[in-house]
Task: structure prediction
Amino acid sequence: MSGREFKSRKLTKSRFKIGMDCPRKLYYGGLDGEYANQQIDDPFLESLAEGGFQVGELAKEYFPGGVDIHTLDYDEALEQTNELLKQENVIIFEAAVKYDDLFIRADVLEKRGNTFYLYEVKAKSVGKEGRKVFLTQKGKPTSKWKPYLYDVAFQKHVIQNAFPESRVISHLMLVDKTVRSTSSGLNQKFHVRTNKEGRKEAYLAEPLSDHEREERILASINVDDICADIFSSEDHRHNESESFSDLISRLAKYSLGQDVPNPTLNKDCGKCEFFCKPSDSDLKDGRIECVSLISGMSQESVSKTPLIFELWNHHDKQGFIDKGQLRLADVQEDDIGADPYEAGEGLANKQRQWLQVQKCQDKDPSVWIDKIGLRSEMANWVFPLNFIDFETTRVALPFHENQVPYEAIAFQFSHHILYEDGQLVHHKQFLNTTPGFFPNVEFIRNLKNSLECNQGSIFCYSHHENSILNAIKTQLETELNELDSDDLVEFIKQIAKPKGKSVEKWESSRLMIDLLEIVKKYLYLPETHGSNSIKYVLPAMLSQSDFLRSKYGKPIYQDPSIASSLNFPAEWIWLQIDDFDGVKDPYKMLPPVFEGYGIELDDRISSFEDINNGGAALTAYAKLQFADISNVERSMIESALFKYCELDTLAMVMLYEFFRDHI
Result:
């Protein structure tokens, strides 16, 4: 490692998974504090992890008498596990097993005589199709399930080699989304906390009833035959002629720092967590380093060069990588194959891709707008204009009775109205985080009431709102016995369209207009680097529009005839300029959740700093389902949720104003 301090680690199941994803990540992760790692603070991943902790704790309830190995120390955990394994029959949670330089902590390991039963618990769901979804038609693990199946195979490999005289029977334990819970508040019985070692863990705050244990929301699926195929295969991700045991040995060397993996590039490198944000000035960028080593370009050149990973919605980025076309500048028109663009028709996918490449090659940062097409679309919009945004969640363990796992829960919306004379009103907002209360009926009633105040056009951003409304429609028709169900279903059918695979079809008299689709057809902002997320579009618009800079660079809420807000003070200014970075991202200007709160926080919410993205919002809702969060802390989290959701609909208003100003 030539003077660089590498943190040598045994190959654990988590590091095996990292190595299967990309061996180079074992190298970057081993140099703690040297490379940026964005996965550490990802609120969406945090929310998924917390659901995983709860599912893991529920799994333990299915194995009465099991013994938990709490210590994080490798040697102590091994000693405690081996002592327990001296018993003829025993169930161990987080059992520690070592073989050579391999080390695992099995979620559940049951020993019956000379046979081990291994259970790997995941918060991932399966339906009535069961294990059929694991494999392709050729009998190979699907890309979706491969990480989980290889995880089990790795653990089985370690146990079989550590106890060669024993038999190992392996299982995946998954969330069964066909089971409808008859328990009220199952989710709230499992709390998540940070322990004294700084690690998160779930614990059972209230005992489960016998019925809750017997209901079996988790399904155990035997995967021995799949593991056997993996063991015999020589076709793994990174080497097509390498046995499974040789693959493990190679990854172990990387994890121990005995060898450095060569960088490789694939289409998923665009999602790599080892990249630098502007605030990571003192850290190294692993993605840039990989591209530099492979291409021969300096890291400085790579950092200033748009890469192929940015190419919007292209399904063969791997093909470009294989041909050495790592930069957008390397892409030729024939590589995209776009038809000639005609003004007024909007952009097809390939035309948008080629426009992105052209803008990059010409170093052209200017806004592109199909004015004719956009003008034609906007001519059909009816004032007053209504802008809505939902905050929703789906959790593994149901919050409420008569729900299946991962049921859609709509807990919040924001509604802005823009009148033809330019007056902007934050008309209504809804938020219900009451513990144990299923909010969907009240949500749709309030939405109906809010939107029926006028007959103007309704706007959303992305298909998410349409999907949620379809889910609520199904709930009203099959699960919820409400007196006004028919009226609510009819309202949904007025503003939402059927999902693509829906058997029932209808014509929507007031169908929501998806501004994301409008953006994709008629607008391209080079500053977004190919992304169409409103989180990227908003700051790019603000930096390009004199109208928006003029209007929102002032405290618009001081005059209600101009604009009103339900959450922000009169003196609030949305557009601010930073001398170094230019226009500040409004989402990053949202105040911290507990700003000014001088009391020590409840441990379950102590990690909250900001609510400025969807992952943080759904995590906040889950936290607020715990009834014993203090009223002050609950109020501050709810206030932050209101502000975030209001900005989402305000951003859509700004998008409309940007359109109007540019046509």
In short: The mean pLDDT is 92. DSSP finds 23 helices and 17 strands in the chain. The chain has three domains: 13-256, 267-361, 365-663.
